[in-house]
Write a structure and sequence with these properties.
It contains 14 helices and 17 strands. By secondary structure, the protein is of the alpha/beta class. The strands form five sheets. A seven-stranded mixed beta sheet has the order 4-10-9-8-7-5-6, with helices on both faces. A four-stranded antiparallel beta sheet has the order 13-14-17-16, covered by helices on one side. The longest helix is centred in the N-terminal third of the chain and has 21 residues. Bound molecules: pyridoxal-5'-phosphate. The site of pyridoxal-5'-phosphate has 12 residues, from helix 4.
């Protein structure tokens, strides 16, 4: 079915991007009469044909409900679904497949932990520590939990470059801390956070850790065991996979001690008129018919990324980021937001005299898709004293030529706006 075991590298060791672009049909179109340039990858990545084919193949040949069926298609669908669990297990280097829970995405994974682990273990006066650059998905569920439980949310501050400040950490992560929840890679700034240090600091006080890997999984190798993260979460759609599917990794001991999230089919062991007992992991947290097709296709996305190689992807995106940053800084009045030493391919910028939204609209007229606004990080924007940024975020299929087009379009937009 799939044909992904191809050579994606040029003789010089760099990625054969033209070859990779052949796998992404959506890129080969004009938008507003111009060649389409997609720089909104931090919002969602485009999908390679291998992922799209996995999805259609599933519906064309295997569609069935899983786990309970004894017929051939039910067995095929179950095998394909569970095969993705094994792929995710090795993708994250989890110790056991039972530690991989399928959810709708990062947001649901975090809400699951807040609603189950949080409800069980957070008490009045406890502290939940998050960073200054969290996406709302890793902020709001903790605010909600803290309000329910009369607990407190504390913030790890950052410097103006968008790097977390760890020098005062022992006064932030203390014996009162029950949870440290931090974004691995910032969607608004591109910063790669020192999560190993945070996890170690949390461990010293016996706090549980949750890492939001939404922006990390497509760029960085993730090893939850060597990191020692208790929970690690991500979404399929930011990893060249489909929307509507994501992952919660949790350590078995924690998952076993947590109450279920939702009640319904699959998550039970036995139900009587009087009550019920719960299924074993991972099914205890997968109530109802899951998003089978998209889980299957997520497996193809993981294969795709691993076939190209994260190291190669990162190397390519770093070339793009360096080039784009250099070109952007030549644009009069442009200020880069997020200048951490350790970054992925995210270029956020502002002008004192031009609104980000106007830039986004005019770039779209030139066929270039970027994101503007607060990027679901309002507290971070408040910290930086700006309402929002314009953000170009790069992926494996982007090119230097596309950056040239975007910068040219930016000059054109500024001529109109100033
Ligand atoms: N966390 C980060 C860092 C993100 O960038 C995003 C999405 O932009 C999310 C969480 C939420 O992901 P989803 O909407 O797929 O649940």
């Amino acid at each position: 079915m799939l044909d992904i075991a191809r050579d994606f590298l040029l003789a010089n060791g760099q990625l054969d991007v033209e070859r990779i672009r052949e796998d992404f049909p959506i890129l080969h179109q004009e938008v507003n009469g111009k060649p389409f340039v997609y720089f909104d990858n931090a919002a969602t990545t485009q999908k390679p044909i291998q992922v799209i084919e996995a999805l259609t193949h599933y519906y064309l040949t295997d569609n069935s409900n899983i786990h309970r069926g004894i017929h051939t298609l039910a067995e095929r669908a179950t095998a394909a679904f569970e095969a993705t669990r094994d792929k995710v297990k090795s993708f994250l280097n989890a110790a056991e497949r039972e530690e991989i829970i399928f959810t709708r995405g990062t947001t649901e994974s975090i809400n699951l932990v807040a609603a189950t682990w949080g409800n069980q273990y957070i008490e009045a006066g406890d502290e939940i520590v998050v960073s200054a650059m969290e996406h709302h998905s890793n902020m709001v569920p903790w605010h909600m939990l803290a309000q329910r439980k009369k607990a407190k949310v504390k913030i790890i501050p950052m410097n103006d470059a968008g790097e977390l400040l760890l020098d005062n950490l022992e006064n932030i992560i203390t014996s009162k801390t029950k949870l440290v929840a931090c974004v691995h890679v910032s969607n608004a700034l591109g910063t790669i956070n020192p999560i190993a240090s945070l996890i170690n600091a949390a461990k010293k006080v016996g706090a549980v850790t949750l890492i939001d890997g939404a922006q990390a999984v497509s760029h960085l190798d993730i090893d939850v065991q060597s990191l020692g993260a208790d929970f690690y979460v991500f979404s399929g759609h930011k990893l060249y996979g489909p929307t509507g599917v994501g992952v919660l990794y949790g350590k078995r001991s924690l998952l076993e001690a947590m109450p279920p999230y939702q009640g319904g089919g699959e998550m039970i062991s036995e139900v009587t008129y009087e009550g019920c007992t719960y299924n074993e992991l991972p099914y205890k947290f997968e109530a109802g018919t899951p998003n089978i097709a998209d889980v299957v296709a997520l497996g193809s996305a993981i294969e795709y990324v691993l076939t190209i190689g994260k190291k190669n992807i990162r190397q390519h995106e770093t070339i793009l980021l360096d080039y784009a940053t250099k070109k952007a800084l030549e644009v009069p009045g442009l200020q880069c937001i997020g200048t951490a030493a350790d970054k992925v391919g995210v270029l956020s910028f502002v002008f004192s005299d031009v609104h980000p939204q106007d830039i986004g609209i005019l770039l779209d007229k030139s066929g270039i898709a970027i994101r503007t606004g607060h990027h679901c990080t309002q507290p971070l924007m408040g910290r930086l004293g700006i309402p929002g940024t314009s953000r170009m975020s790069f992926a494996v299929y982007n090119t230097i030529e596309e950056i040239d087009l975007a910068i040219e379009a930016l000059y054109k937009a500024l001529r109109l706006l100033r």
